[in-house]
Queue: 4 jobs
Job 1
Amino acid sequence: MRKLLVFLLFGAFCVSVFVFFVFGGKVLAQNETSVFFAPAAGSFAVGSTFDVTIALNTGGRAVNAFKIKVLFPPDKLQIASSGVGSSITGFWVNRPLFSNLNGTIELEGGIPSPGINTDYGIIATLTFRVKSTGQAILRFDSDSAVFLNDGKGTNANALFRNSVYNLILPPPAGPIVVSSTHPDQDRWHPVNDLVLNWASPFPVEGYSYILNDDPVDIPDNISEGLKIGAVYKGLSDGVHYFHIKASRNGVWGGVSHFGVKIQTSGPADFKIDVSPGKRTSSKDAILSFETSDQISGIDHYEIKVISLSPSVQSQVDSSFSPLFFEVNSPYILKLPNYSSYDVILRAFNKAGNYTESSVRLKIIKPIFEWVNSTGLKIAGIATVPWFILWPVAAAILISLLYLAYHIFRWHIRIDLKHKDGALHDSGVSGKLEELKNRFRVLTKVLVFFWISASALFLLQAAPARAEPVENKTATPSGIQQLSPPVTNLLPKDISNEELFYVGGRAVSGNTGRVIIYLQSLTSENTFSFEAGVGANGDWFYSHDKFLPSGNYLIWTQLKVGDQVSPPSSQMQITVSPVAIQLGASRLSYEAIYLILLFVFFAIIIGLGTFIIYHFRQGSRKSGLLMKEIREAEESIKRGFAVLKRDIQAELEAIKRGGGELTEEEKMKETQLLKDLEEINRTIGKEVWDIEKAMGHSAR
């Protein structure tokens, strides 16, 4: 009995789960209002018509209005009927609008109260005619909406589902057509020379055929003969259609149509945006790129990373594929080390053609690098520990604050003296003028160093452009069977601290070798290197050493077994001197900049010390000068006081005598002259001391 009860409970649980997932899922689905196309997909032949129904599922809620805008590709589809067929609409707010020019259908209608609640309500039925082959997407515009019957016109937030239809050529009703150059009618081909062949399952008297841009054209009734093939050369980019029919017993049969998609051009030119920048200390670079192709459309993007440093190239090869690999935008490029890199990006269209863009990244070591657990790393060379850095920084800050406070007080005192009129007499104005002159000299020195550093930077940044030159190498005779390699990878500019590389394509499978010739126009020496050719024809070579600065000629040859192709056209590159060669050592300009930076700071510190020293000496000598001035003033006062006393005494004596000077008067006269001479010597000495002190102060 207990087992039966357990069995019944388990059965009830399973039934509950089944009901929940089946009927509960349907209830959940009913709560979702949706608008969709029926059929949602399908394949239709060019020239035929097909109906598409716009249907509404209210999701268990009542709705009473809708506003729908449908977008379709006007180059592939057109509205064949202006009617909308049967509809749940009670009235149209605006009459339905159709535009085969813009590819739009606008429907806006209402449903009388109490609205409608349905799983499948037909809003309209549209009839389309297929104009050309390809893929047609029917989609609802973002302004489309369905409104609830709640008296408020609430948006039901309906889900709008789009549809995709394949548009094909009608099945062949005449001869069977094939192409050795363009075998797949649905695929784009990069070849503009078309080879067609055809055959009929029964004997025929002749064929009539035509090639044009009309997908379902009918050839005329004039026979072109019994040829079973045709060749069309130099066709333009786009979609072309071949139409052919056969005549049997004087009666022309059905027509076969064969579509050909051709594109020899690549996508539009584009640029690569790099964040945070092309020259940065961050090893993570975010690449953003986008382009368009108006004919076949963009298929994918491929990238290749090339290091210009021999020590980093092996790390690049281990981090990235040595060949091109597929990426999407934005792409985070994680570079392995500090170096210069060339990033080459190719945008492919659906025909297999590509457009190439490149950018050079310079990942440099930061001058100051924050190391959390250790300290501050300077130029990647030395690390200052935190327990030393913070006290030093605090001491510098306190010293600067202290100096600023006292200079401010000194400035206030000097300003008060200037307002009182004592500045000119004390000689401080001359010292301030001297300090101004020294600051002018300091400014000139700083400007000179900044101009020098900027000039070096401009010399480094000036690009060297590679231009093709005339091929001066004679083509050997008797080896015309092989085509020379195509070079499509060559740096636009390179320096003598960056590696040279070259790459391209060659028609040889994986059995050939590409010989690269490099001729220096400075020394006229010619070097040769070899690179293997991959299975897809790609080849690439990266030099393992830096090239000396100068101009070079580059050309290539393809070697397969004992056969060698003619030389390719020559290309010229310039290797710019951005590093100084000192014997076997190389000193890059970045290192020179770092040295100049340290020298610059040393000069600033030296000039600051010089200014502070002379300011203190000037202040001290200014005090000595003021002391000498006061002593001179006191000596002059005493001297003139004595002189005044002697002169007054002499005058009184003359007045008393009223006549010729006596011996005593003559002695007094002599004493007067001695006093004057003494005063003169004393004043002269003090003046000399003042001039000497002033001379030292000026120096």
Note: Helices lie at 2-30, 310-319, 386-420, 423-426, 428-461, 589-657, 663-698.
Job 2
Amino acid sequence: MRFREIKNDFQPAILFPSITAGLIAGVVTISLEISLAALIFSGDLDQFLAGGIGLMLFGAFAVGITIALTTSLPGMVGLPQDTPAAIMALVAGAIGISMQGDDPQAIYSTVVAAISLTSILTAIFFLLLGRFRASGFVRYIPYPVVGGFLAGTGYLLSMGAFGVMVGVSTLSGLPRLLDAGNLILWVPGVIFAVTLLLLLRRWNHYLITPGALIVATALFYGYLWIAGIPVSEAASQGWLLGPFPSGGLYQPLTLSSLALIHWDAILQNIDKIATILVLSIIALLLNASALEVTVKKDVDLNRELMASGWANLAGGLGGSSVGYQALGLSALAYRLGAKSRLVNLISALLCGVALFFGASLISYFPKPILGGTLLYLGLAFLVEWLIDARKVLPIWDYLLVWVILIIIAAVGFLEGVVAGIFIAAILFVISYSRIDAINAILDGSMYHSKVDRPKPHRDLLHERGGEILILRLQGYIFFGTIQNILERVRQRMRGNDQNPLKYLILDFQRVKRLDSSAVFGITRLKQLAEANKILMVWTQIAPEIVTQLERGGLHDRTDDSFLFEESLDEGVEWCENKILAAEGIQDLTGVMEKVESQLERAFPGLDCVTGLMKYLERRVVESGEVLMKQDDPAEDMYFVEVGLVTIELELPNGRHMRLRSIRGGATVGEMGIYLGGTRTASVVASRPSTVYRLSLQSLTEMRERDPKIAALFHEWIARLLAERIADNHRMFEALMD
């Protein structure tokens, strides 16, 4: 309970709007609850209407007080709602039919017990959901659906306003508004609503609404005085609320009446009771979520569930129907500037006064003004979502708001929301399918593995690299995106000006999930590859996706028609090795190119190789031997003559990540010897290897003793680094396309 917060609400800027909103909410709530009681206790049950009115007013009192003190959003209004009451009317009618001819007191007790049981079960349901913080699903409801929900609320409020003023609350009854006798009942209310809407759209002062209500009420009674119309005649002509029953109305169950309850009649309607539970949770969360949009402030949905749970427990124990937070009246409070718990407290206390002392005083409130206030709120929602929203919503989202509104008006509220979610899901699928599932399209001429190879091998791979097609996939792969992947492969196969496609790499690093239709599409891709003798390599695929493919019959671990590799780098390396092997280069792990041959190719026609060799130290290293250690001083570089060494990054968790592999005919460590500092990675022999070491001291001696050789050596290193930069530049350009 927030007594300190409530104490602060007595400041004039908060108090006056709160009193205004609270009185309006109280009058509307009393009128609504009397109507809902008449809905539940209708037909053969109308003899119990007085008791039913008392139960609903008690619910408005109990639910209102509880939600006022426990809600996360001051200004939130809670009361027994119309949707649960409408279904409860079916339950009550079915109980009345099944118990026809029984003692009237037994029928009344059974109906009240059904109402109480439903409210208590709903309370437990709400409390459990709030306790386990299970409200998050409503956050996934698309924004246009919330907009359509609010527009539909505006429509229902507008129709309800005409129902208050004229008794016409359906589209079929609208022609009656043009009857001469009805014009006087609703035209003043419409004028009041439109005037209030225009005033509040231009100025947002907390005194505008209460001032407008006082002025309008004074004008109404001034007109009656000038025209000489008695108040009784105004009431008989439908200009005033009421008449309401007078005196005490509350008739709850007593201990003696418990024995009269027919529980079997209640259990026969358990399906309808379950429906109330489901619809109530959806309606409550939608109301709260929509109110977030209206007030532009986060609402703690789990706390609202708890608040509504305790409210229904209190109301249900007293015989009330299911209640929860009301969107319309809560929004009205905020639009009037009444961001205070006093709103619901005043409204609930007014219902309590009507419950225990009668509602005769409220019957003097003019219907056109009450209806005009409700119409203002309905028009505010409609203007916001049918006119203002056009400036901020994309066209399809804006049209969806209209579709939901039309369905709500023509069919029903729940149907409109469900249809809106369904249509939004279809639009999402269509929009998402337009997002390319391919993050990047590369080939082997622009994207190389992290393996440094001899220059002849590099030249060959650059020439034949177009035989490798790399598709880096992303997102959620489903039927709407797999077709694009298939089409891209077909386009590449039809490319007459390119090397024939022989290797297809699908990189799944950014893929979150596949659906069953995507598995079927990939099966077609596999069949296409097999028919055209294309080898497939799948890289960095999640274990759960592998399992999904196996269940779909796509992949058998003994199937060698395509290969799984842990990384894109390893997949590209495998394809490169295949291309080299096709050219007769088989023993890639033992590639040997004597250092003399490397240098002679680097310095054709120059007699400096012998002079350079004297500065190199030949070493034979075993597998696992460390040539360079991460964080050690960078004081040497190596020429790899035969074997394989790997550059590894030592991670904080103790694991090692491969950065590059260096085969015979390549160099490693040249950047460190020029830049100095410490090693950023380690170099380890992955195979028995023969290497030649050039130390920093030897390089210094070369500069001093053989400056010509040193200059040529520097030029060679510069060309080598330039080639690597050019390769990286081509790769980055391809990734950025």
Note: The domain at 595-736 is CATH 2.60.120.10 (Jelly Rolls).
Job 3
Amino acid sequence: MIKQKLQATLEKAISRAIADGKLGNLAECPVPVLIERPRLPEHGDFACGVAMKLAAGARMSPIKIADAIADCIEVDSDCVSRFTVVPPGFINFHLGTGWLCEALLEIHREGEGFGRSEDGRGTKVLIEYVSANPTGELHIGHGRGAVFGSCLSNLMAFAGFDVKQAFYLNDCGEQILQLGRCAWALYRRKLGQDVAYPEEGYPEASLSHFLDAVVAENGDRWLSLSDEEGARKLADLTMAVIVADQRQLLERLRIRFDTWFSERALHDKGEVDKALDRFAELGKSYESEGALWLKAKEMGDERDRVLRKSGGATTYLANDAAYHLDKFERGFEHLINIWGADHHGQVPGLKAVVEALGRDREHIEVILTQIVNLSRDGQTVRMSKRMGTVVTLAEVLDEVGVDAVRYYLAESNPQNPINFDLELAKQQSKENPAFYIQYAHARCASILRKALEPSLNVDAGAEEPAPVDAASWSEFMAAYRQSAATFKPLFEHDPAVYAHQKALIMRLESFPEEVSESAAGRTPGRLARYAYDLANDLQKFYESCRVITADRDVTRARLGLIVAMRQVLANVLGIIGVTAPDRM
């Protein structure tokens, strides 16, 4: 990347200045040399403020240090057209075309792999997300966790991690018993029996369509069961329908999990008891008042936590201990859980559990996602036609489509609430970022079609040959991967036009850095915003610069830029799970 090339150039210049005795008492550079983008374009394309950090050690003013370093800079003027020292000690750089051409060459050579890295070094990561109770439909809040988890999984895999995705099925416990009681009553009511629906339970309207499926499949087969047996049976049957519905909806959202992990299986296999035995062996638990407690306070929690109640039932924390022990024993080196913000109180306990199991608590991350506020024409959307209290994910998908849902749920930091404007998500304009980015990709495809396909001359009423024939295009594509000089004719002498050309290429060239920093920060939304900025740079370039010209070399170079643009857009859209259309 250009930043790395500038950094290496400056490091050599600093070493030379030190060797020549120009930097006072410094024997080496004690701080990293950082390259930054200035806020104002007139300050250059890149800047370095290392002189300010060297002032104390060199016992010189930053401006003198910057002058000394600048005197030792050796760089091809074709790559850096000029550099200047400005108070209080910055060195500002203005790029020439050399490194820009090399950036385009790299994009063509890497293709679909451009931006990928080995930052993850193959670390085995399990990302668990959604994990909604199998007791009803997924709502838009679940959708946020689903999209964020999917995008983060794609991003980390792109950055070199070995990623697997898991959905944890909470298929036992009080919520399933309650589901069974409600489903058993509703099953009998649908088959003509006059029974009361439980006053405390899941809303009848929210389960009704699931029970329709159960009745259609089973008829009155289970009516003779006792209430206890019926509740258990109907819990399982209804839960199976709900889980199938959740799977189908998530696949529609382009999400497929490697594992749907059953909490019930942990109990059936004795894994929960195994985890409790592990705590005892390590001296991390104790009994008091008939209950079993985790010594969580010893591990930084505010209080000790109950693992097994006095009545014998294990807590969610004990189940989580068994599940996370299983994750580590399956060979995962790093665990990421994506939870709703309402689970924030469970994070310290989970961290303590991991440490109590003899694992490094830094190997478990919990990312909390905030709420999604839906609006239409400035008014908050609160009610669902079916659920009555929440808006289902299916309803939003039906209204605005998968691409818009994925983009709008992906772009924000998970710690911030999302204000999702349903009407904006359907607009076909620049104001709708999802559409604008996709349109940029389609525009690139359109430019290439215009170059490669014959056109109709309306005035002459005759077909005109394509500007670039098949043989020439094959030659162009080979040249794009062979020599950076191929892209030299791309640039205009007009400073205003050149600025747009340079801005676009610099944005493309920065994609690997965006990927690396987004993966490290667990912020795939940064890439969604990067894609919008990239689309905006393309718009400015398109408005100021003709791609297909009478000059063959210029046309070849600019078409090469368009191919690179299309590739980078496709790569970033692939990470956030939004389609990259060729026509719109």
Note: The two ends are 33 Å apart (CA to CA).
Job 4
Amino acid sequence: MNPDLEEDRKIAAQLHRAWPAFFEKFGRLTDVQRKVIPLILDGKNILICSATATGKTEAVCAPLFEKNIDCNSPWTILYICPTRALVNDLYERLLPPFSKFGLNLIRRTGDHRTEIDFIPHVLITTPESFDSILCRGKFNKHNKNKKYGHALARVVALVLDEIHLLYGSPRGEQVRWLIERLKRLKMYAKEQGWSKTDKMQIIGLSATISEPEKVVIDFFKTGEVVIINGKRDIEVVNSCIKPVRELLPEYLKTLFYPEKILVFSNARKRVDDLAADLRDVIESIGYTCIAHHGSLPKEVREEAEESIKKTDKIVCFATSTLEIGIDIGDIDLIVLDKPPHDVPALLQRIGRGNRRTNKTRVMLCGNIKSDDILHNAMTEAAKSGCLKGCNSGHNYSVAMQQIASYIFQSPNLVRQETTIHDFLKSCISSNFTKSIIDSMKELDALHDCEHGLRLGQYLLDLCSTGEIHSTIKSIGGYTVIDELSGKKIATNIEYVTGNGVKTGGESYKIKKIIDYNIEVCKSKDTTGEWAYKKQRIFHNASQAIALREYLNLKESIWPIIYTGEFSYVFHLGGTTRETIIKALANINGRVSNFKKEKTNAFFMTFSCFIDKKPDWLNNIGTGNFELYIPSKIDWFEAKLCRPYVNRNLPVDIRTDEIKSWLNIDEEIENIKKSVWTKTVDARIKDILSEFLEY
């Protein structure tokens, strides 16, 4: 008998109820399901790393379903998703198998504020709503379920979906602290008799991640990493790279059968422009044209998602909002308008295509030769699974947010200072706990009282409105509104001048502006200067490192290209190395030939002929560099896109966070070991020359 078939039958025998509910329509298990179901049935904490559309959700939910369905007392599977859209998608996918057996499944987000006045069997939510439920989930004395104390007192398993989208971000750090709070709640629940056990299984799901062992330590403390190495083939459908405005219509005209096409761009305004400019030609070929990004209203995005599912001939222009595992059906072609900012984003985007097969069809588009090169370099990295340069650092600002939320969770809105210290030490270095609390006292964010620490009025107001539960700060801007219906058309608009805006693939004429509302009507005869307000986003070094790997350059080799005016030295180390190099130039104020404004994530620039590494990059020490950081801490934080709220933290903590993101010891060692050379292969020189104006 085939070994896999034998294993499938063995697992099926253990899933008496779950098999028909989750796998009967498939008949067989996938590799990831075969590997992880027995581990989950054994109660192991595991991080599952497997490609998109390999059946990870069923691999987790089926055994958890089987383990708990016969339990007579209440139990909860808590499922955390990074976005509301993914919550909605999972809710629709999991509702049939769970409701078939009379199990209650609820979702809780900012859009679906379901009242949780009972112990749910499955609760699907976001990090922000998880935070809110911890604070507001206690049953009052009039609730029939008051004997269980809290809505989360009976959590038996915690599932962290798409964990790679959380790890290394403030929201991921928030989840790490929330897990600690949930553990404390469960211990308290056991003491109070709300629950017989404080045990909880933790399972993480990831498609692409560079440091799985570190993720386990951060989120699980202990657990196993399960990596399924199967990779999809990537078929590039175009032989030469052209702008998407040229290539996409040409491709559509050659099709004999309907296709669903998803076009990824790196900016919201780019999505709007492409959808508006190409709408007529796309529709003339018989295809529907839609747009999807984060500044469009929820209703518009959900309508677009439904259209992709139900329409056979459709082109959707989108940003990263459609990178994650929302069910939008089988996509026949992924179009990359330009190279994504990093390799994980590329893997996410191409992972949306051709879920029925192991082959992803991709169209690579670009406007300049360097786009072509980066596309090829990053695609090669994706094929080989190379995720170098994706490391991240600390996110200490979350500590203040979590202290406030943890105090608000207390019934009397007070926590003993020793309890706060203990809570902090479970998540960050004990060296910082006192200074964080003292800093919050100085800011009037915390006040001493008879029973411990209470919140200042500002934080208390944020807790009362629910704003405290989010680490995502609003970016503001104008809201575009239809003058007749009053419906929102777009948000986060930065209006400059002109009589129109072009958003969501449609053109609108401005009728009037009242406060921060722009009232409009549809019109093609408009012009205007406007943009979307942006949040600063840190981009890791994986793009630059993919280029180095593509050129087969050793880490120590830094090619020099001299143009007669400037010398360009290709460090290919990303934003972190760029930041360190610029800081070293600042430390050595006599560096007159170094052009800081012309140095970027790929190369450094000198306004002279140079054929060797200058002394100021040879004679460098980690100690002196670390002493420099506090004096320019605002500059470092801006360069590395750290949250503005970090300025409320003590300088020593801010400095430690910067050091963790810069990876100083390794980077300075790389700079010291670097060999600067003009004698590189002609092919390499030609390729790198394309980036001189990047």
Note: DSSP finds 24 helices and 26 strands in the chain.
